[in-house]
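pls design
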């Protein structure tokens, strides 16, 4: 049995699931999700239940002691190196020893690289098929996207802006980055792009993002329906992502070999934080 710790926003949850799923497949083992971080009031909700994932939420009897609820038992588990084996992500980039891990481990980390699951890519794509049917509004937009030269553009604000600590860690992408990314993709397209802008602050985007192309701001899905935005993003032809795991997945889930994905060259504002493995080889990094 492989247990993976799930926390953070939907994009983080997807990376944590994908790494755990890949390891479980290698061993023919069950994948169990430790979702206890979502008990009570949390900033983000558990969003994996909208996907066709092959895992179950763990119950107390099979999960290791929780640090907050049972601190003494937790210290004994860690100190005596009891099962399941604790495996913490080492740094932000790909951990080369991950593929050699055995069964019976507890994964704690973010695992933000497709290298963790690239060998089972087809399975991960199937697992991240959204099982919840789109509502009429999103169904209509999906039909619209299929018939247009759509480019998704994601602007992450929220805690990236209002929380000083998060802002110092991640920062935000500049309007200049978005303008140059749109220009780069437009140069490579045979049709004029239609930009579909996604954000956790669509009103700000509408007031501040000015582009020389048709732009439609997607503002109808709230945070409880962020998986709908992810589905719409992945249905676009090309993608301009933020330094956000959410739009990373929106671009990655587009299966087209002809897609163009533009990403900021720096994922973190903090110069001490570096993950050179977060970008798939074909993606364009724009400084």
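designed seq:
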């Amino acid at each position: 049995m492989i247990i993976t710790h799930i926390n953070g926003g939907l994009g983080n949850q997807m990376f944590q699931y994908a790494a755990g799923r890949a390891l479980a497949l290698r061993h023919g083992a069950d994948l169990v999700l430790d979702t206890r971080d979502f008990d009570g009031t949390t900033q983000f909700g558990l969003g994996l239940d909208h996907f066709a994932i092959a895992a179950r939420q763990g119950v107390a009897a099979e999960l290791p002691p929780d640090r907050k609820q049972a601190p003494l038992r937790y210290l004994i588990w860690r100190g005596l190196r009891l099962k399941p084996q604790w495996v913490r992500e080492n740094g932000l980039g790909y951990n080369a020893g991950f593929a050699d891990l055995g069964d019976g481990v507890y994964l704690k980390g973010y695992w933000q690289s497709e290298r963790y699951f690239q060998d089972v890519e087809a399975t991960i794509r199937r697992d991240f098929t959204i099982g919840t049917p789109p509502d009429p509004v999103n169904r209509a937009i999906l039909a619209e996207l299929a018939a247009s030269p759509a480019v998704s553009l994601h602007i992450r604000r929220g805690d990236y802006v209002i929380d000083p600590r998060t802002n110092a860690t991640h920062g935000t992408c500049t309007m200049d980055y978005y303008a140059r990314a749109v220009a780069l993709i437009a140069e490579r397209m045979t049709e004029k792009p239609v930009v579909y802008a996604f954000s956790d602050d669509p009103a700000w985007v509408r007031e501040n993002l000015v582009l020389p192309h048709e732009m439609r701001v997607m503002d109808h899905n709230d945070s409880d329906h962020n998986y709908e935005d992810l589905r719409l993003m992945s249905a676009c032809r090309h993608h301009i992502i933020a330094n956000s795991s959410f739009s990373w997945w929106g671009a990655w889930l587009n299966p087209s070999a002809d897609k163009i994905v533009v990403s900021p060259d720096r994922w973190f504002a903090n110069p001490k934080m570096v993950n050179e493995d977060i970008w798939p080889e074909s993606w364009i990094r724009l400084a």
